[in-house]
Design a protein that fits this description.
Layout lengths: L3 E5 L5 E5 L2 E5 L4 E5 L5 E6 L2 E6 L4 H22 L2 E8 L6 E5 L2 E5 L8 E4 L5 E5 L2 E6 L2 H14 L13 E6 L1
Length: 173
Amino acid sequence: METKRTIQIPEGVNINIETVNVSVSGPQGQLQKKLWYPGVAIKKADSEVIVETNSPRREQLAILGTYESHLKNMITGVTTGYESKMKIVYSHFPIQIKTEGNRVIIGNFLGEKKARKANIRGNTKVTIKGDQVIINGINKEDVGQTAANIRQATKIRKFDPRVFQDGVYLVEQ
C-alpha cells in the first residue's frame, strides 16, 4: 500500500507549512487551510510537498488522497483560478439579478414581490452579463458553494418544476 503521496510545486508558487496550517501563494493570490489528521504528516522538500503516514490503516490512506486533492486544488487556484458559468432561464416572468455587497439579489422570480437572496462566499466575484452569471475565484470550495447558493435560492417550491422551469442553472464549471 502506498503510504506517501508527492505533489510537485510549479514555478511561481510558494507553499509554507507551519504545524497544521498550510498556506499556498501564487500569481492569483494566497490561500490558507488547516490540514490535520492523526498519523498524517505534511512536509515540504525542495520543489515538492510530501503527504505521508506511517500507519497503513484505511482512514489514514483515505486522508492521504483527500489532502493531495486539497493541495492540488489550492495550487490550481493560485495559478489559474476557478470559474463557473450559470444561465438565467425564465419563461413566465423576467428574472432580475444584481449583486449587492456579498449577496446576489434575485428579483421578480416567478412574479414574487419579495426578492430572493444568495450569499457570496469568501473573495469570490460574481458578474452578470445578459442571461449569464459568471462566478470567479481562487478557492474552489467558495466558487462551488456560491454557485450552489444561487441555484438553491432559485429552487422552485409549490409548483411543478416540469412546467415552471424558471431558475438559474449551472452550465459550465
